[in-house]
Amino acid sequence: MSGAQLRVPPARQGPGPAPAALVDALALSLARRGSGVLPGDRLSPGVGSGTELAQLRPYQIGDDVRQIDPAASARTGVPHVRLQVPERILTTWLIYDRSASMAFGTADRLKSDVAEGVAGVVARAATRHGGRLAVLTAGGTSRMLAPRGGPHAKIGLRRLLEEGVVVDGVPDRGLAPVLHRCGRVARQPGLVVVVSDFRGELDWQRAMRALGARHRVLAVEIRDPREERLEPAGRLSLVDPETGELLEVDTSRRGLRDRFEAAAAVERAGVAAAVRRAAAVHVVLSTRGDWLRALGRALR
Q1: Domain check: are 35 and 119 in the same one?
Q2: Reduced to 3 states, what is the DSSP secondary structure of residue 11?
Q3: Which tens digits make up the pLDDT trace of 76-86?
Q4: Residue 155 domain flag
Q5: Whole-number Å distance between alpha carbons of 248 and 269
Q6: Per-residue model confidence (pLDDT) at position 299
Q7: Does 108 share its domain with 60?
Q8: Domain carrying residue 57
């Protein structure tokens, strides 16, 4: 995506303080809760050097003599070798929504600020114990960072986050194409973390269900209080950042505020139901309060 289609939101606050000890604890919780296993605990379909026993069989010419099992050889009187399963590195796929709506925020920070913090925790969890991180962006033209481990993965993610979010009015194809793409390129089972506000149509639910059939999926939904209820602030001119549509409303009307709150509740319930049908873990964070501790409570 060209730089002209991205911008750093003027009101950007950043994710806020992130104590290293708390981030490390969250990274461990994320790896366990999201994937169910840590690198080294998952068996590979192949055999070779590793820590898990795959087969114990009689020695054959050409076998590595270092793999001879003394106990089995002494018990049977015939040399036996141990074939082991190699440890497989776990790859975490981060789907990061940087659509224009992520630049919205009326509380302590913007939705994109919270998303940036969550992405940092995911990167920390992904690269623990030699794991790898891959990134796909949603919003505007999608970008992909191939799976990488160690500091290179974190540096690539940091550069991507510093590009900001999509500018208002740029066509947005939504999450569905990015989820489909992730399903095509993520061939080995792993952890998929989707960080988004999940605004708009629910056309992504089939793609998320397909991902959930092969991977562990964690859906992190980021909300702002003003998206759930309106305050009586008089007449307002509202602009949809992704379509540019202008709407004028009179927020002093109680009926309008009630209908808005009811519609928002239905929309959020729809997102929760779609995530649940995909067998994904659903975490809801807000731009108000300490998102880091809220994430920790949700991952207990």
Answers
A1: yes
A2: coil
A3: 899 988 876 44
A4: yes
A5: 26
A6: 82
A7: no
A8: 52-85
